[in-house]
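All the exercises in this workshop are built on plain-text protein records. A record pairs a protein's sequence with a compact description of its fold. Read left to right, the backbone structure tokens trace the chain's path through space. Once this layout is familiar, the rest of the handout is easier to follow. Here is such a record, shown just as it appears in the course material:
>
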Amino acid sequence: MYNIVLVCEHGASTGMLTAAMKKAAETMGVDATINAYPYTKLDELIDGADIILLGPQVRFKKKGFEEKYADKGVEFLVVDTVAYGTMNGEKVLKQTLEHLQNK
């Protein structure tokens, strides 16, 4: 089971993407917990997360997050802008799983 956390500025737009990803996970038979939050909650969410997906609007924070949470061993991945804009949950889920399997 994967614990996938999406973060953006407020958690609203990633909430819509999360719903699309959950539907894709169900269709694909992927066992995953997928939730969205504002990035300000990362301190509470980092433990137990397998990967943190960053909405494109907060991609500039990736380096800082990687430095701050380096000891946690959690991967950070910026969501593809086109997939995010079209709310393509299947594409984002596939990219996420590929990233997790190659780490």
